[in-house]
Amino acid sequence: MKNVTDSFVSLGHWPSAGSFGFNTDILATNLINLSVVLGVLVFFGKGVLSDLLDNRKQRILNTIRNSEELRGGAIEQLEKARTRLRKVQMEADQFRVNGYSEIERERFNFINSTSKTLKQLENYKNETIHFEQQRAINQVRQRVFQQALQGALGTLSSCLNNELHLRTIRANIGILGAITD
């Protein structure tokens, strides 16, 4: 540190004009060279640096402005997309509700239709059973009547002789004649 202060102190007085040489004190010469270079740079580079900084500032401001415009456009598009999404969600909910109610209505109609069909089938079954019962009863009646008739004819044939047979026929003809008159 003492060398540095000595070099600044020695700057106050110059050696005599006859002696010319190199200053080997690195700290002293570097500080002087640096201050000269900085002074020249500040003096001559001030305008160039100022222009460069102004251009850079304008580019940054333009970029910020463009970014703000893009941000505004993006926000507007986002709001439009959100509005569209809400609209689509409402339509989807409406379709879902309509679909569910349509499904319920179709289910109800199907159940009613099936119930009516089952009732009709039950009625047809009952009618068929009744018809078959009546047919079976009629067949049994016919057989019983035929057997009874055959039995009666057999009994009459064995019990009746010709004379009794003729009297019965005349009596029946007389009864039939009295009914028709």
Automatic annotation (TrEMBL):
Record-level Gene Ontology MF annotations: proton-transporting ATP synthase activity, rotational mechanism
Q: GO cellular-component terms in the record? A: chloroplast thylakoid membrane; proton-transporting ATP synthase complex
Q: Mind listing the UniProt keywords for this protein, alphabetically?
A: ATP synthesis, CF(0), Chloroplast, Hydrogen ion transport, Ion transport, Membrane, Plastid, Thylakoid, Transmembrane, Transmembrane helix, Transport
Q: So where does this one cross the membrane?
A: 26-49
Where does this one sit in the cell? Membrane; Plastid, Chloroplast thylakoid membrane
UniProt main location, coarse: membrane
In what way does this protein cross or attach to the membrane? Single-pass membrane protein
Q: Which domain of life is it from?
A: Eukaryota
What protein family is recorded? Answer: Belongs to the ATPase B chain family.
Q: Identify the PANTHER family for this entry.
A: ATP SYNTHASE SUBUNIT B, CHLOROPLASTIC
Q: How does it assemble?
A: F-type ATPases have 2 components, F(1) - the catalytic core - and F(0) - the membrane proton channel. F(1) has five subunits: alpha(3), beta(3), gamma(1), delta(1), epsilon(1). F(0) has four main subunits: a(1), b(1), b'(1) and c(10-14). The alpha and beta chains form an alternating ring which encloses part of the gamma chain. F(1) is attached to F(0) by a central stalk formed by the gamma and epsilon chains, while a peripheral stalk is formed by the delta, b and b' chains.
Q: What else is known?
A: In plastids the F-type ATPase is also known as CF(1)CF(0).
Its biological purpose is as follows: Component of the F(0) channel, it forms part of the peripheral stalk, linking F(1) to F(0). F(1)F(0) ATP synthase produces ATP from ADP in the presence of a proton or sodium gradient. F-type ATPases consist of two structural domains, F(1) containing the extramembraneous catalytic core and F(0) containing the membrane proton channel, linked together by a central stalk and a peripheral stalk. During catalysis, ATP synthesis in the catalytic domain of F(1) is coupled via a rotary mechanism of the central stalk subunits to proton translocation.
Q: What is this protein called?
A: ATP synthase subunit b, chloroplastic
